[in-house]
Amino acid sequence: MKKERFNVQFLNAYPDCSHFYTSAHIRISDDGELRFSSAFQYQFRNTLSVTTCMMLSSHMLPFSEKDILRERALYHDFSNELLIQKGSHLPRFTPEKAAEIIFNTSRQYDMVLYEFFQTDMYGHGFEIDECIDLIRKLNRLLRRLISLLNKEEDTLLITSDHGNLEDTTTQLHTTNPVPLLAWGRKSDELRHHIKRLTDVTPAIVNFFK
Predict the structure, then answer these.
(1) What's the whole-model pTM score?
(2) C-alpha distances in Å from residue 131, one per residue of 36, 122, 143, 167, 179
(3) What is the pLDDT of residues 9-32, one digit of tens each?
């Protein structure tokens, strides 16, 4: 996307560790391989999410705790509750407030990506009542976000890379089909082109052509 000169941004903030995502600790070789400093490898134990690798390969710097305070980025726990429990002096965001931050930041870019993986975490061992409460909060966020978006100009795409939360009999990822929701401008076109998970990226690229 950046190669096509579109202005894109990963919306997730990396509090307390954004300083590791600099040229002092990361280098991308000519063949595209990511090379890390020993301090980086010790900090993260060689475990990086796909979206983190995506961000790094795009030469994108992550948002930090300061960006959360400026209300232009979100932690994966959009409420900040997990960070507050660890001693961070951050405000608690309601789902509605988180939606407003997503919307306001999105006005500055052609495309933004927010990764909400608490549903994954909850699927690995939380009780069903806790899972239901989490989904209710996520629904509140989406309800507010949709109320802010312009259906004729904006597009919202929601999906997951695997099943998990829907089956509380296992703490493992499932192979169940996952939902894909497309709303707004050219949403019918997106749904038409996406039949499986591997279709998502090509459909988004084609969407911007």
Answers:
(1) 0.88
(2) 36, 6, 18, 11, 17
(3) 999 999 988 888 888 888 888 777
φ/ψ region of 32 (left if φ > 0, alpha if ψ in -120 to 50, else beta) reads left
Strand partners, 157: 182
Task: In whole angstroms, give the CA distance from residue 123 to residue 194.
Answer: 25
Q: Are strands 155-158 and 26-28 parallel, antiparallel or unpaired?
A: unpaired
Q: How far is CA 27 from the centre of its chain?
A: 23
Nearest to 71 by CA among 118, 30, 107: 107
| 3-class secondary structure, 177 | coil
Give the whole-angstrom CA distance, residue 209 versus residue 207: 6
Q: What is the pLDDT of residues 150-187, one digit of tens each?
A: 999 999 999 988 877 777 777 788 888 888 999 999 99
Residue 98's identity, in one-letter code, is A
> How many angstroms separate the Cα of 21 from the Cα of each of 40, 47, 50, 62, 167?
9, 14, 15, 7, 35
Cα separation, 161 vs 58, whole angstroms: 20
